[in-house]
Amino acid sequence: MKQSTLYIICSFLLFFSFMVARSKEVPIYQVILISLGGFLLAMTPLGYPVWALFLVIGNGLFG
């Protein structure tokens, strides 16, 4: 899979999660956590900034 294809798929999934959150069937915090978790589990190139965000939050909360 090419890098550009991966970015197209990720942008579609972000758009889809935005539309689900906008319909108010799922709370916005759950949509954000699910989308960030998806990037983290897939470890796409966009997953590394998500991992860094989790590390910053974790180090801030737990020392």
How would you sum up this structure, described in words?
This protein has about 60 residues and is mainly alpha-helical. About 80% of the residues lie in helices and about 0% in strands. It has helices at about 5-20, 30-40, 45-60. α2 (about 30-40) crosses α3 (about 45-60). The longest helix is centred in the first third of the chain and has 20 residues, at about 5-20.
Number of strands: 0
Helix-strand makeup class: mainly alpha
List the total number of helices: 3
What is the ordering of alpha helices and beta strands? HHH
Helix content: over 70%
Main beta-sheet annotation: none
Q: Give the N-to-C terminal Cα separation.
A: 39 Å
- Into which percentage range does the β-strand content fall? under 5%
Low-confidence spans: none
Radius of gyration: 13 Å
The gross shape turns out to be flat
Compute the average pLDDT: 79
